[in-house]
Amino acid sequence: MSTSNNPQYIGVLHKGLENQITIPGSKLGKTNLQDVYLFELSDSGNLSLSTGGFDLIVGLGRDTNNNGIYEANEIIGEVNLGNSKDEITIELPKGNYFVEFRDDLNGEDAISALDRDGAYYSSRLSLDADIISNPTNLGFLENGTSQEIKGSSANIDNVTQYGTNILQAGYSFKLPTSGVVTIDKRTVDTDTILARDSNNDGMYDSTIDETIAFTEYENTNGGFGARIEDITISEQLDAGNYLLVFEDGRNLTSGKEVPSAYNATITFNAAENTAANSTNPALDPIAPIFSVNEELSNSDLSYLIEGNQEPFYYDSYTVSAEFLAPLVGQTISMEVQSADFEPFVFLLNADTFEIIDDSYNSLGSGNAQIDVKIQPDVNYLVSVESALPGETGSYTFAGNSI
């Protein structure tokens, strides 16, 4: 039990949902009418205090004199929860704050069909944006294949009354070419977000990344029980980096609530005759020799390597088996020339993403070349990137028979 004079310290709240503070489910009653918690805000920002419960008053206050005691003149605001979920959202400066949970019935038994005795609550504090700094990386999605992802402490097809909620889970993936991404999912009390990784940093940040599709949990059970939903998301997407996020639709952490859960299958079907980077033109399949003049820029796809402050930028091209069919058995050169940066070229099997060869400035003076003997029914993926972080500039990518 924690009181106004002796609050329980629950830590420092930083910006971002991953650094959230969760207050697990607890019960108030005749011998414990109040719980008070003390926390710090490391930064100024928009504080969200999300609480679910019943027969409850929720209060927020600031420790203005920093004495660690929750006093009446320090109350910022209160909400009264009968049998619901509510949220206090407020802009606050950095400092020390209190959150109070108080039995609205002063320990008297509630008269309801649920026959509860005392108040019950669970809560979560977060500051500003929803952020996932380290989502699970699914890598490149292969054409015509599916991946299954799931998360819960419960069997999603036989939801029990006890379990630990999945508050938020994220996945990142890359598309080597444009095509249709289909997400077939069964969820329990879960919101789903499909977003473009707008700044290509491999993180989900709701204030930066562009939301492409969103499905929201709808509470149709008065705050209790589970809502199981079967939903399909299907989107035509360009080549690039993407994020898939699952969030608890109720923002609760209580072990006495039904756990949120998800099972999803993500499938990618590439568009025909398209380049892997939507900003680049498709290779012209009318001749056995091709040439593309392009520019590597800071708006292209990119990745970071630990220890480097700047990203490596890259463009990707698909050279189809159909296009190369007349050259099966022959050796061709795939060459990149640039006066602006040192090129690094990767050659991969576009279907399996197995690396066939790579070349770093192999010809010197800003030129890199890979020679490959064309195999039947193989689609090739060529990645053109800078050998050094942060480099950009114009280049020519050409294929020639040897």
Largest sheet: 7 strands, mixed
Radius of gyration: 27 Å
Please state the oligomeric state of the protein chains shown.
Answer: single chain
CATH class of the largest domain: Mainly Beta
Shape: elongated
Structural class: mainly beta
Count the E strands: 27
Strand proportion, as a percent range, falls in: over 45%
From N to C, what is the helix and strand string?
Answer: EEEEEEEEEEEEEEEEEEEEEHEEEEEE
> Which stretches are low in confidence, meaning pLDDT under 50 for 5 or more residues running?
109-116, 153-166, 221-225, 251-258, 273-288
Average pLDDT:
75
**What is the percent of helical residues?**
under 10%
Give the termini distance in whole angstroms: 80 Å
Number of structural units classed as domains: 3
What is the CATH topology classification name of the largest domain? Jelly Rolls
CATH architectural group of the largest domain: Sandwich
Account of the 3D structure:
With 402 residues, this protein is an all-beta fold. The chain has three domains: 8-128, Jelly Rolls (Sandwich), CATH 2.60.120; 132-270, Sandwich (Jelly Rolls); 290-401, Sandwich (Jelly Rolls). Helix content is 1%, strand content 52%. The chain contains one helix and 27 strands. Strands 1, 2, 3, 4, 5, 6 and 7 form a seven-stranded mixed sheet that branches. The chain has a five-stranded mixed sheet with strand order 9-11-17-13-15, with no helix packed on it. Strands 20-21-26-23-24 form a five-stranded antiparallel sheet. The longest helix is centred in the C-terminal third of the chain and has 4 residues, at 321-324. The radius of gyration is 27 Å and the shape is elongated. The model is unreliable at 109-116, 153-166, 221-225, 251-258 and 273-288 (pLDDT under 50).
